[in-house]
Write a structure and sequence with these properties.
By secondary structure, this protein is α/β, with parallel strands linked by helices. The longest helix is centred in the first third of the chain and has 18 residues. The strands form 4 sheets. The chain has a 5-stranded parallel sheet. Strands 3-4 form a two-stranded antiparallel ribbon. A two-stranded antiparallel sheet has the order 6-7. The protein is built from 13 helices and 11 strands. The protein has 2 domains: 206 residues, Rossmann fold (3-Layer(aba) Sandwich), CATH 3.40.50.300; 102 residues, Helicase, Ruva Protein, domain 3 (Orthogonal Bundle), CATH 1.10.8.80. The radius of gyration is 20 Å and the shape is globular. A hairpin with a 2-residue loop joins strand 6 and strand 7.
Length: 321
Amino acid sequence: MEGEEIIRAQEIAVKIVQNMEKVMVGKTEVVELAVITVLSRGHLLIEDAPGVGKTMLARSLARSINCAFKRIQFAPDMLPGDITGVSVFNQKTGDFEFRPGPIMAQIVLADEINRATPKVQSALLEAMEERQLTVDGVTHRMPSPFHVLATQNPIEYEGTFPLPEAQLDRFMLRISIGYPSAAEEIAIMERQQFVHPIEELTPVLEASDVLALQEVVKHIYVDDLIKEYIVRLVGATRRHPFLYLGASPRGSLALFRASQARALLKGRDYVLPDDVKVLAIPALAHRVLVSSAGQSQGRDARAVIMEILESTPVPGTPLRR
C-alpha cells in the first residue's frame, strides 16, 4: 500500500479523534479505542458508572462521521420487536410491510443493555455478527457502516441480567471511561456553562469515508511473527490456572483487526507488537472467566491478561521494506 494513502487515511482518522475530544475532555485513549473499533468494523462495550460520558461518547462519534444515530434505552419489559422492528399488514396493498426498529441505524447506542431480558439481548446477536435481521422469515440487511456501542453499569446488579458469554464475545473491545481529573472536571463545567459542546459538533467526514477507511485497514500488513504472538497470547488464556474459560478464536480475530486499525491511526502500514499489547486487555478481558482459585487470590480478568502479557515473549518483528 502506498505511503501517501496511509498518511491521508491517518489524517482522516486523527480528525475524528480530535473532533470527539471537543466533547470528551481528557479521554484521548478512550476516544482512540472507540475509533479503532469503528475502523475495524467491530462493536464496543462501555462498562462504567453513570454520568462519566458513555452516551456522549456515542453521540460525538456519530456526529463526527455524520452517521444515522439511534439510542435504545433497554428495560426489563422490552420485547425483541421493540429493537428489530415488526411486520405490519397494510390493508390498502394487502401485503405485510416491514417497519424497522431502532437497530436499523448506522450508529446504535444500546444503553444499559444488561437491563433487558436475555431474549431481548439475543435479538442483537444476529444484527451484530451477521449484519442482518430476519423478521417473519424475511432477511433485512443492516446499513453500512453499522456499529453498536452498548453500555452497562458494573455496580448496580438489582434488576439486571448479566450478558452471557456468547453476547460478550460479539463485542470487539470493552472499555471503561473513568472519572476525570480535577482540572478536567473544571474544564467540563466551563465548556457546558452556556451550551453543551455536542450541540456545536460538526462532521469531519461522511459515512462513505468511513467505509473507505475500513477498506484501508484491511490492507495493513501483519507479519507472521505478530500473528503467532496473538495466537500465543490467546492460547495462554485457555491454559492459565486462574481462568476456567479462555478467549475464543473470535478473540484472536478481534486483536488482529484492532491492531491493524491502531497501526493506521498511528500512521503505519504495518502492525507492531506494541499495538497488540495495548489492545490485549480491551480485546480479551471480557472474553475470559476467572476461576474460583483466581478469585480467592484476588485476581480479576484484567490482572490475569496482564500476567499473560508479561510472561509471553515479544517477537522481534522485522519491518517490511
